[in-house]
Structure formats: structure tokens, C-alpha cells
Amino acid sequence: MARILTVTLNPALDLTVCLGHLEPGEVNRSPQMLTHAAGKGLNVAQVLADLGHTLTVSGFLGEDNAQAFDALFKRRGFVDAFVRVPGETRSNIKLAEDDGRVTDLNGPGPQVSALAQQALLDSLERIAPGHDAVIVAGSLPRGVSPQWLHDLLLGLKAQGLKVILDTSGEALKQGLAAGPWLIKPNTEELSDALGSDISSLAAQIAAASRLQAQGVEHVVISQGAEGVNWFSRAPALQALPPKVSVASTVGAGDSLLAGMVHGLLSGHSPEQTLRTATAIAAMAVTQIGFGISDAARLATLESGVRVRLLTEE
């Protein structure tokens, strides 16, 4: 299995509040509340660990409330390369209703100084070369600019690493210019970054061609229940997920990304890579939390994924 580095620049303590139905402005009582040490890169890392890979986790972590993260790293056997910064890691509240709708209330997180940013760059320069791939995922904390992210990606590429990027907004726009190896935006995120609507298949094909010309080898566009489109040097593929009962959509995209990285680094066929990744994402929406909880259930979901060439009618 592979050695994989994840970089989560803006992790979060996720408090998931389970509700039958949210009544705004009223007293809502929850039968269950769950707290997770999270953030996109860490979510991806947990799925990859379940798939057998060795993980180093990095990024910025508030030193005032790091206990839940320290416990996660110990439990999962992650190599901890996070740079601690003054203040608290942000808290995100997720209101998860029985019909699968999730309302997010995301906190701001700590201010990251130029000194801390340089400390992370220095750390990554030392540790990154020992890995097979690096995944940079999630939003940017206060103080970190999209241009800094762009320069970070270029530096990681210069070390010969396969660089995977999963972010949005101006960070994605700047990140695309660095030509990462793989990206996994949803349709809305990529449309925003490119400044044009890519909801149609023709627009996605054209956008993927432009991105591949600037160095993005794999363009994976997630479309929720409508499936996943994957553009690479091989023929373009689409995967349609099986119908499942949705508990929460939180972490579905992270699970999809983990499955794609797993298949590509493991040498699986394109069809098997996309099938497994789509099944992992389908499993993610049936649970609250991150990881592969039931291998037999995953196998059943895989058998329900339909993979086809995008050129098919």
C-alpha cells in the first residue's frame, strides 16, 4: 500500500446535531449529538487508512483545543506533522435532518501567522519526499492567501509528488493554475473557478480538455446523486451510484476522493477505481462519521454502481 500525506489547512471540530426536522426560530430537541475531529484532508485520511494505506497528516491546528485531534491521530496511527498555532481550531455545527438535508454553521478558525505558514512549508519540504502522493484539501484559514496555496502546490510538485487538490472558490482557481495531478470539484465549484457554467456534458468535456492542457491529469467532477464524471488520458467514464437511504451528505466527497486516490495508487483499472470510489461515497451518505465501517456492505454497494463510457447515449 501507499504512503500518503494529507494537508488540511483549516481543520474543524464537527458537532453533528441529529434532528427529525429543523424548525427555525423554535426549540429543537435532538436525540443524538456527535463530535468528530474533522476537516477534508482528515476525512480523506480516515477512509484511506481503512483501505490499508499509511498516513501522515499535516496542516494548521489550534493549540487550545487539540485534544480531540490528538486522540484521532493516536487511534488511527497517523503520523502527526501538524503545525500548532495560537488559538482554537474552528468548530462547525451540522444540523442533520432525517431526510438527509444538512445545514452547516461553520466557524472562522484561528488566524495563521506568516511565521506559522513558513514553519509548515519547512516541515513539508522535509517530510513530503517520502510519500507517494499528497492531498491538499479543504478551505483556507484566516491569514492564508490563495496565492500562498498556489505556491505550496508548485513546491510539492517540484519535489516529484502526485498532488491532489480538493478545495473551492478563489483557492481552487489559484490551485488550478498550479496544475495539480488530480482535482475533485463538484459542478458548482468548478463552474465558479472557471467562470463559466459546466453543467452540460459538452461543457465538462471542453473544461477538462483545457485543464489537462495545463497539467491536470485527472478531472473528477462529482454530481451527488447524479453520479461522477471522470476525465483523464483514458476514455472518459461516468459512474451512477446505487440508491441508498441518506443519513448525512457530510464527507461523501471526501470519501469519493479517497477511493479515487486508492484505486489510482493501487494500479486498479479505471472502471474498478471509479466503481469502488463511488460505492465508498454512497456508503458515506448512509452514516454519520468518516471511514469504511462495513466491508460486506461496501461490496454490496459496489455491485450496484453502474460505470459507463461518457460517449454512450
How many helices? The count is 10
Provide the CATH top-level class of one domain.
Answer: Alpha Beta
- Computed CA radius of gyration, to the nearest angstrom: 19 Å
Record the strand order, biggest sheet: 5-4-1-8-9-10-11-12-13-14
Query: For the report, how would you describe the main beta sheet?
Result: 10 strands, mixed
Shape: globular
Can you identify the CATH superfamily of one domain? Ribokinase
N- and C-termini, Cα separation? 37 Å
Give me the count of strands.
14
Output the CATH topology of one domain: UDP-N-acetylmuramoyl-L-alanine:D-glutamate ligase
- Helix content, binned percent: 25-40%
Unreliable runs, pLDDT <50, ≥5 residues? none
Overall pLDDT level: 94
Which structural category do the helix and sheet elements fall into?
alpha/beta
- Percent of sequence in beta strands: 25-35%
Order of helices and strands: EEEHEHEEEHEHEHEHHEEEHHHE
* CATH architecture label of one domain: 3-Layer(aba) Sandwich
